[in-house]
Here is the input.
Amino acid sequence: MSKNQISSQSQIKQKPIQTKKSQYKQVATTVAGGNGKGEGLNQLSDPWGICIDNDKSIYIADQWNHRVVKWELNSNTGQIIAGGNGRGYQNNQLNFPSDVIIDKKNNSFIISDNGMRRIFRYSEKNQTNPQVIISNMIYHSVAIDKNGFIYVPDCENAEVRRWKEGDNKGELVAGGNGVGNHLNQLYEPTNIFIDEDFSLYISDSLNHRVMKWKKDAKEGIIVAGGNGKGNSLKQLDHPYGVIVDHSGQIYVTDEMNHRVMRWREGEKEGEIVVGGHGAGSQPNQLNDPKGLSFDNEENLYVVDNQNHRIQKYEKMLS
Here is the structure.
């Protein structure tokens, strides 16, 4: 940590936030980027999606650099593992990648390459021959279940589809009833999470809510937001990233409110976990947060998009 970072942390006056029980330190540590917007190996440019490996390596969809980078634990720089050869359509190029996940079963990682309208499977050892597994859709994120099935939200058709190896179209698992705010509809689904019971959690961005679709359900239930666009504890404003912890609590990046919210299914309001101090670059602030993830110790990582950095919030021992 630099002297400037230490100085800025010491100057922050901790204000009480509207939360029932915050389990995370409110001042974050920058673990990737944070050196301004740029293409250097110590920089990021509008990052979107992340995932964390068991060794706490962070994989980042570094969108405006058209690359995926890996930052190992305590490293000051990342390493390019896909793309990084300018925006384009060749096998060694990416075009505004928006998400990356690890497929441990196949010893590979999967990249949502938004500008190309396709999803790649990459091997870190063989980056020159990526496999296109899904194409011709507009999507921001990708998820994988324990059986290796891949789930992608299709923003254009307001639906989520599940893909098996060799599928040409995929199976509809949520939405698909046109754009709208009914329980069987979605409006700009952007990010998804699949749990052990194959329940699907969807950031329904322009409905300002998170939906839960149980396996084989014909409609979803609202588990966060759904009370119009706003900044109260009952509301969200363009939710994006969504993950669920082992106790079933739902974490969502509330993008335009510059905070991360936590909701328990069935409760009428959520609580602020981190952020919520307005848009800014201080260690207790966020600016348009996107993806989020846990490591194996349940520390929380947030993509701080407009600050071009990844923030780590340590879990406090109870």
User: Anything to note?
Assistant: The helical segments are 3-11. The chain has one helix and 24 strands. Residues 3-11 form the longest helix (9 residues). Confidence is low (pLDDT under 50) at residues 1-20.
